[in-house]
Amino acid sequence: MPHTFAEDAQDAIDLHVIDAQSLDDWLAAQDAVVVEWVRQNDFAGNLGQTLLVPANGDRHVIALAGYGTASKRARTHFPLASAATKLPTGTYRIASGLPEEMAESECLGWVLSGYRFDRYKQKSDKTVSLVPPDGVDTAKVTIMAEAETMIRDLVNTPTSDMSPEDLAAAATALAETQGAEICTIVGDDLLAQNFPLIHTVGRASATPPRLIDMRWGQHGPKLTLVGKGVCFDTGGLNMKSSTGMSLMKKDMGGAAHVLGIARMIMAMNLPVQLRVLIPAVENSVSSASFRPGDILNSRKGLTVENNNTDAEGRLVLADALALASEDKPDLILSMATLTGAARIAVGSDIVPFFTDDDDDAQALSDAGARVDDPVWRLPFHEGYEAKIEPANADLDNAPSGGFAGSITAALFLRRFVSNARYVHLDIFAWQSANAPARPRGGVGTGARAVFDALPSLLKL
Fold first, then answer.
1. Gene3D superfamilies per the record (predicted)?
2. What is the DSSP string of 147-186?
3. pLDDT-derived band of residue 58, with 50, 70 and 90 as boundaries?
4. Alpha-carbon span 371 to 53, nearest angstrom
5. How far is it, in rounded angstroms, from Cα 404 to Cα 193?
């Protein structure tokens, strides 16, 4: 993250954030040289516009950042970030114009505007530092930016370097950094320890499937995060098209997100007993592949008629959710790149979530609005329960008909949860086009909303 916070403001350039509709008011307070310079350079305060105004007499160089109009700002997550990327290398200090209620979010966007996934290419040496406004908790913002960066890096990394083994190594590195305990169950040991669905989905891959189990914290309410870690999804024997497979390196986005949230929790030292469970597999094709029509056993004892090998995420999550329930936590929260139906319903920017608890739903919705990380509640609709009950087993992983796919997937997962309140988020984890502080590629969706909601969800 080459864009950082600066501690020394002595040589910082004053940055004036200018709403397009307030430009004339700002100019009215400036000297004639500034007014003429702004007019000659056609600076109108449009979103993303920048302008350096040279020194004159006793006045130092100043910088202007267009903040657009309220309607334009509503269309992007981090409006100021669009200007941050265009400013030359240097250190800047917010001098005026940034609304106090936007300061923390815009500071986060400023730092994230420097994000580049450059593991496989030449790195940029451009650094644009910010002296934040008074009152901004820079330590918190930095932790959030580091967590978001980790999520993006994990999702962006191709499966050649982000196999189930690599994902486990990333989780282990995080655990070691934060003083957490971690263990991993690998390969046939999954069968010995009763995780048959995780083993079934991952057994066709050259890299054995595994269950990652991380614990941190000795006091406070018990929170268990469960993340889907399908490091690549061919669709199995119900193979995806080449187009459908093109983004499947991101099918471990749920795992990346719960690790990012865990990083924030541990770095901020929240008073919780945290557990993170990640079933890490690759859904591959070989002579060991599971087949359409197979009846599969689960850790909970429920049988599943497998009617589509491309509906594998809910299978691996099922065993992990059953394990999570055995610990009787106060809250189980799962995140997964689970269904295309969720994208059809709300698009890529909004995260649908499911819960039976109205207070939890309100807390998560409020948090999403507060931190500009939009979420939207969908129902655990009881009327659709029959859709996931086939003739030959307890459950169907891929009901026919195609309707309400996100809801039926969530209902399937809920069957494996007991002894705890449950929230499930069906995420996308991908930015399809470049946007301020959100370049095309992996991106956090719902992670900041979840973290911001935790004090309410867990009564901290």
1. Leucine Aminopeptidase, subunit E, domain 1, Zn peptidases
2. HHHHHHHHHHS-GGG-SHHHHHHHHHHHHHHHT-EEEEEE
3. confident
4. 33
5. 34
Tokens of 21: 């509709």
The identity of residue 147, as a single letter, is A
In 3D space, the residue among 215, 227, 224 whose CA is nearest the CA of residue 164 turns out to be 227
Helix (H, G, I), strand (E, B) or coil at 276: strand
- In this structure, how many other beta carbons lie within 10 angstroms of the beta carbon of residue 8? 9
- Characterize the bridge pairing of strands 273-283 and 229-233: parallel
* Token pair recorded at residue 173: 């590195």
Helices in 212-357 by DSSP H: which ranges? 242-245, 253-267, 313-326, 340-346
Burial class of residue 151 (count of CB atoms within 10 Å of its CB; 0-12, 13-18, 19+): buried
- Exposure string (b/e) for 87-118, b if CB count within 10 Å is 16 or more? beebbbbbbebbeeebbbbbbbbbbbbbbebe
pLDDT band at 126 (very low <50, low <70, confident <90, very high): confident
> How high is the pLDDT of residue 264?
98
Q: Which residues are catalytic?
A: 240, 314
Q: Give the model's pLDDT for residue 386.
A: 96
Give, for 290, the enclosing helix (H) or strand (E): none
Task: Return the structure tokens found at 337.
Answer: 């790149």
Q: At what angle do helices 164-178 and 253-267 cross, to 10 degrees?
A: 10
Instruction: Tell me the domains of the chain and their CATH numbers.
Output: 13-133 (3.40.220.10), 143-457 (3.40.630.10)
What are the tokens at 27? 């100019």
pLDDT in tens, 112-123: 999 999 999 988
Q: What is the pLDDT of residues 234-290, one digit of tens each?
A: 999 999 999 999 999 999 999 999 999 999 999 999 999 999 999 999 999 999 999
Distance, in Å, from the CA atom of 271 to the CA atom of 222, rounded to the nearest integer, reads 10
How far apart are alpha carbons 174 and 224 in whole angstroms? 17
Contacts of 49 by beta carbon, 8 Å cutoff, 6+ apart: 43, 64, 65, 66, 83
